[in-house]
Design brief:
By secondary structure, the protein is an alpha/beta fold. The chain has two domains: about 130 residues, 3-Layer(aba) Sandwich (Rossmann fold), CATH 3.40.50.2300; about 60 residues, Arc Repressor Mutant, subunit A (Orthogonal Bundle), CATH 1.10.10. About 50% of the residues lie in helices and about 10% in strands.
Amino acid sequence: MSLAEPIVHLVDNDPQVLKAVGRLLAAEGIRTEASASTQEFLDRYDASVPGCVVLDLAMPGGSGLDLQQALHDSHVDVPIVFLSGEADVPSSVRAMKDGALDFLVKPVEADELISAVRRGIARDEAQRAEAQEDHALHARLDRLTPREREILPYLVSGKLNKQIAGDLGVVEKTVKVHRARVMEKLAVRSLADLVRLASRLHVDPPPNPRGVGPTAN
């Protein structure tokens, strides 16, 4: 996971708000960067650096909701805390349905804003840790040979080696050898661990055994 210091991006076209929120978070030891428009934010944003966004709703040249949608379309899952001077229910509902962490209304209590920002940073760190773990798991999966990839769904299906051998048209000893190699390459010690890993990797269930199709009514 990135060792970079988290940055809270403040996006608001009101310089007084940017200054006040920046000072508030700085007093809490939180680093910030200010942008006066959504485009300025997009020009400077580095998705590899952890953090979150404190975002105004209504701004010229692109609203906060437009920015939220643009980030979503770009598959950037940065936590967003909306901080708006308008108690616009439809907009707040849309923001939250689209994944915003919180929707606060100006003037906001300092503790409430700080709490939301800290939750945003924590969520981003958790998301990055999960993404890193997923990457490591897929790297293990990539070590399997095509034949081992083929047999993996059968291994987690709960069937005995003899049954898997019958489904695949191989001898039972072959299944045992492949099972041992798959367990070793995926770095698991038990069937339960293998099942959990396969679920995390979204391994598809095994197809119907050869020559067996759906039963006709």
